[in-house]
Model the fold of this input.
Amino acid sequence: MDPHISGVSALQQSVLIHEEVKKVVVSCFEINLMGLNAIILAKKAGVHARGFGVISGELRSLSLALQAEMHRLGLLAQELLNSATTRLQAERRLARLTDAAAFSAEVAELLAPAMEKTRNKMVVFKEGSKFGECLDDAYQTCTFGLVLARSARIESAYSGELRTILAELSEEFAQKITTVLPRLDALRQITQNLA
Done:
């Protein structure tokens, strides 16, 4: 973490990360439900839609993997929140000590060890690079999800009577996964100075 980031700024970043993570988790939940619905429809369509059903199962698995990656990000955001709180307390304590030290050189000399100890507490959150790793994994998962959605579209063409419904469902998969990508971009921007 950039040592120039204040405790308040780090606190704000942790809140923003949590908000974006929640939005992605909602999308994961929706993809999972869509996958379940697609599997049921594929079974109704019979043997012709078997491939579509398999791909729908993969999309459900993908949503769970993405949800797990968001859980990792949430844990990192919680660590950031804890570190930000510690840093904020240290900043406030240092400000009070600095004010007191301004009274005289003797007081400043007496408070110097406490000020140094407080400054050492201001180095916070050493796990910043893990945000980037989690986001890279999430991007890869989404990219694979888009490939799966395209494959589902192709499989829907061979799905008998329900081909139109399954084709629409494959488009919904692609749209839902596509809505996650801007959230990941937002998370990348929020966390870029934490590495």
User: Anything to note?
Assistant: The chain is about 85% helix and 0% strand. The mean pLDDT is 90.
